[in-house]
Amino acid sequence: MNQSQNLKVEIPEKNAYTYDIVIGTNLLKQAQELIEQYTKAKKVLVVTNEKVEQLYGKDLQIKNSIRLVLKDGEEYKNFETYKKILDTAVENKLQRTDCIVAFGGGVTGDAAGFAASTYMRGIDFVQIPTTLLAQVDSSVGGKVAINHEHGKNLIGAFYQPKIVIADTFVLKTLDLRQLKTGLAEVLKYAFIEKSCAAPLNYRFFDFLKQNRQEIFGLNPFIISKMIKICCELKASVVSKDETEKGLRTVLNLGHTFAHAIENLTNYTLYTHGEAVAIGMKMAFRLAKLKNNIDTEYCEEALKLIDDYEIAPDFVDLDKDSFYEEMFLDKKAQNGKLRFVLPDGICSVCVADDITKKQIFDVI
Predict the structure, then answer these.
(1) pLDDT tens digits along 186-245
(2) Do 57 and 12 fall into the same domain?
């Protein structure tokens, strides 16, 4: 499938700012043309990582570009990486009219995007995501950040890209673990679909049940359709609540648990998607414990997670440390933890009446 699809993201909060997500195959070879179309940059700083550079660096050829190759991994989404990006921009005299391109997964996109949001108070930013997780979730919506030693994404901004270029061809080199880590965010969209205020009914839960074999086989038509549905659901949410004052919180299903898991294990034991998948299972058990959902839907949702084999076994962590760690979650308010929990089929709500005992019962 060589034909690309364009999806428009609209941000009314920013004076009706819009940008396109372009989804298709062999888009890396069109990146030069697309960047020229969507920005006025004379210089382009491409921020990537060692693995992506080795696999696809030769396919992304952009005139007047500087390339910064970083180490990959959540542990590198930190102040040091942020400073390297800014230092490179300064050394190469990037101006406000120039552009930073994130060419990699979620770590690259988050760090490069945060640097773009702060360099000269903001310069153009382009996302070229190379992992499934980044293509369906982190590259869309303008959340950019680095981690602090006491919590994930604690230092960041809302900063929208000029364009997102999602080339599905690059997914063929993902190993199975990285494919599954992206699929955790994909399943999340199935569980929250009815809460996304999207104009269409995708029946995404059923789509994922019916197409598991084709998805793992990277069927290009099914993969492109899957990515497009995820992006349309996220775009629907972001267009109504860019800065997470209300609706956008639904995108965090499983994430309150997940961020605590990641931080307590120093981002080395689980990928982000694995932590989210574990967190979603905890969220479903908590919702069932509170009688938010019936047993049939809970079991069906947990079965879908298990069928996709995206949630590894959860190591025993000190429960008190786990509980305290969750208070660093950005959704916490007035000394209360707030969880996104299922409250119906493919629907979620925000709950802040969870007791410590209930949390202990599901972790």
Answers:
(1) 999 999 999 999 989 999 999 999 999 999 999 999 999 999 999 999 999 999 999 988
(2) yes
This prediction has a pTM of 0.93
Q: Are residues 302 and 231 in the same domain?
A: yes
Q: Hey, which residues does 143 pair with through a beta bridge?
A: 158
Per residue in 101-114, pLDDT (tens digit) is 999 999 999 999 99
Coil/strand/helix, residue 103: strand
Clarify whether residues 349 and 229 are in a common domain: yes
Task: Please report where in the chains the tokens 């981690």 appear, as a residue.
Answer: 147
Q: Is 39 helix (H, G, I), strand (E, B) or coil?
A: coil
148, 62: one domain = yes
Q: Give the angle 4-228-21 at the CA atoms, nearest 5°.
A: 60
b/e string for 178-216 if b means 16 or more Cβ within 10 A? bbbbbbbbbbbbbbbbbbbebeeebebbebbeebeeebe
Q: How many residues does the chain have?
A: 363
pLDDT value at residue 2 = 56
Q: Residue 103: what residue type?
A: F
- Say if residue 2 is exposed, middle or buried (CB neighbours under 10 Å; 0-12, 13-18, 19+): exposed
